[in-house]
Design goal:
- With about 325 residues, the protein is of the alpha+beta class.
- The protein has eleven helices and 13 strands.
- Helix 2 crosses helix 3 and helix 6 crosses helix 7.
- The chain is globular.
Length: about 325
């Protein structure tokens, strides 16, 4: 039986499992419970639509210095011209294209903001260390409960949306194997591909699964389903990456991509504190730009959905979207 957390202040109601609230939401927002409840209290003091209330409360809780551009900006992903969105620190910045369809990480080099193509190190500190220092998840193993539930829900969503039956799947960026565990419990054959040696070792320890450390090129036209859950934003050249991955799909197979949405209400509400603005994210997508890169990889879009989790009262979360490609 799951413990639950609930708060009602004015017209704002938030309900969640205690596990996800503490290890998911508070972690992403970098808040403790007292600060979260202070945010809701401040937000409830004005009579506005819900997202405007939450934005009002957040802006008063956390001051946001305006972004200022002092260095020339090099062209970014898809050679798009861009403008400064925000600074992550004195070294790293996020640049958004002029048409606001795509964004990318940039690094200050010789008084220019150059696109960053080098990822951080995805080892133990990334998964289990302080996310404010090392990025990443912070105590990923302790999040197993709600992440396993989420994995089961994601698999059910895919099967329901596509009528996909049990088959063989490849989970790219498989972490500790949570989604693979959901696949196994549902009767699927499965493989994982994970660049982190630490994560591969933990997966073996937890579930006994072997995991590929590089793309399994020997498995051409093998998989009915390939999943990229919060992976594509970590890749500096997403088009080439996808071209190599889809070679592993069997004819008629499905590729599912979930990634942060830069045009979501949360990005507007949290501004420069939007929780997906991280050093490890090299590229940020919108509907338009994700369709562009997948089209360049010769993928045809069939379905896009946003899980409409209730976040606050009647608020709908669209922080991440899932695309299905054939």
């Amino acid at each position: 039986m799951h413990q639950h957390y609930e708060i009602t202040i004015g017209n704002i109601v938030y309900q969640d499992t205690l596990d996800h609230f503490e290890n998911g939401l508070l972690r992403l927002l970098n808040m403790d419970r007292a600060t979260f409840e202070q945010w809701i209290t401040i937000s409830s003091n004005i009579s506005k639509p819900l997202l405007e209330q939450l934005s009002y409360g957040f802006m008063r809780l956390r001051h946001q210095a305006p972004a200022t551009q002092q260095q020339p900006i090099d062209a970014g992903v898809l050679y798009a011209p861009g403008e400064l969105w925000c600074s992550l620190d004195q070294q790293y910045y996020v640049i958004k294209s002029i048409d606001k369809s795509i964004a990318w990480l940039a690094k200050s080099v010789d008084n220019r903001l150059q696109r960053e193509i080098e990822p951080p190190t995805y080892e133990e500190s990334y998964f289990e260390g302080d996310p404010q220092l090392a990025g990443g998840y912070g105590k990923y193993a302790e999040q197993a409960g709600w992440r396993l539930e989420k994995s089961t829900r994601q698999l059910n969503d895919i099967c329901k949306t596509t009528n996909l039956k049990i088959g063989k799947a490849l989970d790219v960026g498989s972490g500790y194997g949570y989604f693979r565990r959901a696949l196994e419990l549902a009767g699927w054959q499965h493989d994982g591909w994970e660049i982190s040696q630490h994560a591969r070792q933990i997966t073996k320890k937890l579930y006994g699964y072997d995991t590929f450390s590089t793309i399994p090129v020997e498995n051409i036209s093998t998989y009915d389903l390939i999943t990229l859950w919060d992976v594509i934003e970590h890749i500096s050249d997403p088009v080439s990456y996808l071209i190599n991955i889809v070679k592993c799909l069997r004819p008629g197979g499905i590729l599912a991509i979930k990634t942060p949405n830069i045009n979501c209400p949360e990005a507007e509400m949290f501004g420069t504190h939007y929780h997906s603005l991280k050093r490890e994210h090299l590229v940020y997508f919108s509907d338009k730009s994700l369709q562009t890169i997948t089209g360049l990889a010769d993928l045809s879009t069939r379905i896009c959905w946003r899980r409409t989790n209730q976040t606050m009262g009647n608020g709908k979360s669209r922080s991440r979207f899932t695309w299905i490609f054939y």
